[in-house]
Amino acid sequence: MERTIYTTPQDAETAFYAALEKADLDAMMSVWADDEEIICVHPGGVRLCGVDQVRAAWRQIFASGQTLRIRLRHHQALNGVTHAVHSVFEEIAVSGATQTQNPVIATNIYMRTGNGWRMVVHHASISPAPPEPDTKRAPKTLH
Amino acid sequence: MERTIYTTPQDAETAFYAALEKADLDAMMSVWADDEEIICVHPGGVRLCGVDQVRAAWRQIFASGQTLRIRLRHHQALNGVTHAVHSVFEEIAVSGATQTQNPVIATNIYMRTGNGWRMVVHHASISPAPPEPDTKRAPKTLH
Predict the structure, then answer these.
(1) ipTM reported for the complex, 2 dp
(2) Which residues span the domain enclosing B105?
(3) Nearest alpha carbon to residue B121 among B61, B65, B63, B47
(4) Which pTM was predicted?
(5) Average pLDDT score over residue span A73-92
């Protein structure tokens, strides 16, 4: 399968959440670095390491058949030459669910590889409270 | 106050956990980048942004008077030129507590600044299970 080249960390992030909403396992894994060092921690979950564990967990999540709609808020970025760190609140709506849930805080880390920018870490945890209203602070890029 | 220069991400990490065990607020904050973009998520906690919020939360934690002993396990490192990502299990023993608790999964991100390596992100969450036994996989460094 020919893999998409993401030329910026933001492109990779957009593809990550698109794959999540579509429950598309191939698209999801094409965002991740093909590396035994990748790490994924789902909310309340264990630490998954390497492509096999990360793929197996996404397969299980997508097999539930639930459709998720995700709204991202309060995005912050620390973009470096070889790595980029994005922090974001995920407001997740589950199809058929009437309850709203607290947002998820996600730390997403991307690395520049020979095949463009790829995700290397996704660490997510449930926030005990909604984020404060958007402030005047704009996302910044550090070099 | 003269601040220590950490010449490697590992030096900064060692200082981070030493400050945590000593409940030393100045030492703790000397590990962090002096930047409004730093992010700290304590286990089950909200997202703290910037030096003021991060410092206030550590002050509150240290004010509890509890002494923590922390054993680190299953360390993985993705070290780049400007950023380094460390993932680790924290086995935390609280003085006076008889219950053992599940370990904490921490994603620690360091950035090379004009004043050496500094922490820019600490994202921690409780693991629902202990990690698997140490495997043959040694921590690796990617460049």
Answers:
(1) 0.89
(2) 9-126
(3) B47
(4) 0.90
(5) 93
